[in-house]
What we know:
Strand content: under 5%
Oligomer: single chain
Helix content: over 70%
Bound molecules: fe (ii) ion
Number of strands: 0
CATH superfamily: Ferritin, core subunit, four-helix bundle
Shape: elongated
CATH class: Mainly Alpha
CATH topology: Ferritin
CATH architecture: Up-down Bundle
Number of helices: 4
Structural class: mainly alpha
Largest sheet: none
Number of domains: 1
Amino acid sequence: MKDAKELLNLLSHAFEMEYNDVFLYLREAERVKRKLRDGEKLAKMFEEFSMTELRHADRLSSEIISLGGKPVWKFAELETESSIHKILDKHIENEMHAYNHYKKIMGYSMSKDFELAVSGIMQNEKYHMEKLIEFYNKLELRR
Ligand SMILES: [Fe+2]
Ligand SMILES: [Fe+2]
């Protein structure tokens, strides 16, 4: 059994990542609507992802509290990429990073209930990654 303090740190980091994505997806949804031809579709996808990340953050925060921690999110300047390709690239990287981070979390001992929640979150992040890659490839074809 690994250290509970370590798990709490990993959960806190996950919480921050989720919150950053909640805001980043929302902000970029607005941008792609304006900038991109057929931007509506991607904007909808980003808005949907933002809501999912919000649910993840919510589940993490209750777990952090139940472990005696305090969920904290510091508002930081969010960096937005300049092109649609870069925006997608960045999110693909973030989703992959999140997926791997949760995989690491799964190595710790936790309640059955939370374990199920984390494996559900991992499935969501994988789905996000696949959808982003799909959209990226379609953009490439249109170039
Ligand atoms: Fe997430
Ligand atoms: Fe995600």
